[in-house]
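Forwarding the complex inputs:
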Amino acid sequence: MQDKLSLMIPGPTPVPETVLRALGRHPIGHRSGEFQSVVKRTTEQLKWLHQTTNDVLTITGSGTAAMEAGIINTLSRGDKILCGTNGKFGERWVKVANAYGLDVQIVNAEWGQPLNPEDFKEILEADENKEIKATIVTHSETSTGVINDLKAISQHVQKHGESIIIADCVTSLGACNVPMDEWGIDVIASGSQKGYMMPPGLSFVAMSERAWAAQKQSNLPKFYLDLNQYRNAGTKNSNPFTPAVNLYFALEASLDIMQTEGLKTIFERHNRHKTAAQEGMKAIGLPLFSAKGYGSPAITAVAPEHIDAEVLRKEVKQRFDILLAGGQDHLKGKVFRIGHLGFVNDRDVLTAIAAIESTLSSLGLLNGKIGEGLKAASAALK
Amino acid sequence: MQDKLSLMIPGPTPVPETVLRALGRHPIGHRSGEFQSVVKRTTEQLKWLHQTTNDVLTITGSGTAAMEAGIINTLSRGDKILCGTNGKFGERWVKVANAYGLDVQIVNAEWGQPLNPEDFKEILEADENKEIKATIVTHSETSTGVINDLKAISQHVQKHGESIIIADCVTSLGACNVPMDEWGIDVIASGSQKGYMMPPGLSFVAMSERAWAAQKQSNLPKFYLDLNQYRNAGTKNSNPFTPAVNLYFALEASLDIMQTEGLKTIFERHNRHKTAAQEGMKAIGLPLFSAKGYGSPAITAVAPEHIDAEVLRKEVKQRFDILLAGGQDHLKGKVFRIGHLGFVNDRDVLTAIAAIESTLSSLGLLNGKIGEGLKAASAALK
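Prediction (whole assembly, two chains):
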C-alpha cells in the first residue's frame, strides 16, 4: 500500500509534500525566461550545497550517469587511474572505467571495511612519472553503509599534483559535510533521490577548474553526457537538451527547504539518526556490518546472526509498511539496511527501530526483553 | 504567468491533470514488486503505442539520449552510415555520429523540404559491397515542421539488406501512424514531453531483432546508455539504474488515457489540428514554411513575409499567454511554429489561430479583414 508507505531505504527517499506539489505543477517551456530563472536559482542553491564556487551542472539521468560523465569528461583512452572499491558502487566505477578502456588500478578493502587512505598514499607517492590521471572514491558506500575518509584521500591526491580526484557523493552530499573547495575535490557526482529529498531523475556533477583543464585533454567519445555542452548552455541559464522541467521545480522547492534548515542542522540530524540506528540495533544484539567508527550518515547496514535478513525485512514491510533495504549481491539475506537519508525525522527513525524490535519479538527471534532497542535509540535521539 | 499558460510548442506539451496527479504521488522503492508492476504495465503499453512486438526500453534522459543510445548500441567505430538532414535534428544525429567516429554520408534536403526517398534508394543500390551499416532518418523534423516519408525510405533500406534503419520519431510517435513492425523500422527513439502528454525526463528506444543482432557486433563504449543492461533488467521488469520513478507513474497514467482514446482517434485529431493550423495561416496570408503536403502532424511552421516572427510570437505570449515556438538557428525571426502535439484539443488550436489573427490586426500587420483565419480553421475543425 503506497498511501502509508514509509521509505527507509537509501533512495528513493521520502519527499516533502511541498516538493511533490512543485513537481506536479504544469510544465513550462524549457527555453523560456521563466525557466531560465529556475535554472539560475537552482544553480546557486547547488553551489551552496556543494560549498563551492565551481560549476555544478544538472543532468537528466541517474547518479550513475553523473559519475560516468565525471569520468568520461576528464579522461582519455588508456589513462591510468586509481579506483577505491569496498562495495557495489566502488565496483561499478571500475566497470564504467573498463567500458571506456581506462587502465584501472584497484585499491580494495573488504566490504564493510573503509578504504585505507595510506594505500592511496603509497601508490600515489610511488608514481614518480605522474602517470595516474585520476583517483576515484566512493564517499558513502551505500551497499555496505561505510563512509570512506574522502578528506584524507584527497590530501594524498593533492600532494601527487597530477591526478584529479573524482568522488561519488551520491549518499553523502546533503547528509554530512562535503566541502568541495576546502577538501579540493575535483569532481563530485550526486543524485536527486538522496539527500536532496526529491524523486529520482536528476543528477549533478560539480567540476573544479582542474577538472575543466583535464576535460580539455579528454578524448573519450560522448554526446548526451558531454559536460562542455552543459557548461556552455549554463552560461545562458539553459540546458543543451530538454531537461526534466518538473523535476527542476521540485529541485528548487527541496533546496529551499534545505537552505531554511541550514547545512549544520542537516548534518547534525543525519548524525543523530545514524547514532540512534546504530545504538538501537546494538541494544537488541544485532551487529553492525560497517566497521566501528565508519558508519555512513545515510544508511546503517545490519548483519543479524542466525536470522535471514530478508525474512525480517519482508515481515517489517508487511506488518508495518516500512520499507528497509536488503543486502546487495553476496550480502542478500545476510544484511538489511536502514536508510536515514534526506527527509527523515526523529519519529521515522524511532519507528523503524521499534518495528524491527517488535517484529523480531513476534518471530521469536529477539534475544532479551523487548524495549532495549527503543530505549537505546531514544537516548541517542534526545 | 504559469497558472494560465497555454503551451503551443513542440515540447514540453500540455499535461492532463490526471497525469500531473500521478506524477505528484509519493515515490516508492524502484526495486519493489509494486514498481515492477508499473514497469511491466508501461512496457506493454509502449509496445501498443509502437505497434510492435519488439523490446521498448525506457531511459531516464531526453530524446537525444534515446537517439544516441540507438546509434551507439548498434554501430562500431568507422562504420559507414547514411544520415538524412533537412533540419536541426537531422543535423544533430550527424553530430552524434561524428562524436563517435562514424563515417557519415549525408543525404540532404533544404530546410522546409522533405528528404527525397529516391536519394536514399540511389545510394543504397550503389552500395554493392554492403558497407552501409545504418540509415538514420528524422521522421518529423521539429525545426521545420516537415514530415519525412519514413515508410518509403524504410522500404529502400529493407532492399539493401545490410543496413538497419534508425528513426527519430520524437515528434511523430503518438501523433501519426508509426507502425514499427509493418514498416520494418529497426530502432525508434522518442521522448516523454511530446505525443506522450507527459513532462520531459523519460525517453524510449524500441529495438528490432535486427537491431539486437547489430548490437552484438557494436564496439562503441557506453555504460549508462548500454541498452543490453536495460534489456536484461527488463526481463525482470526492472531497470539497471535508478529510474525516474514518478515519471513512470505519469507514463502509466498518460498511456492509459491514450489507450482509451485509441490510436486511430489520436492520429485523426492530430491530422485535423494540422489542417486547421495550415488553413488558418494561409487564410490570413501567412505562408507555411514546410513544403506542400509535407506538414508535420505535430507542428506547423509559418514564415510570415515582412513581419518579424519573434515580435509576433512575443506579443501573442504577452497578450494571450499562449507560448508559440520560434525559429531555430538561421530561422530565428523568420519563422514561428504552432505546436499541436499531444494533449491538445480543438479549442486550443482555434484559440491559437484567433490569437495570432487578433495580434496581427492590433499590430496593423493583418492583410484583409479580421476573421478569415478563424473561418478557415473553424471549417477545418468541423
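Chain B touches chain A through 52 residues (CB under 8 Å).
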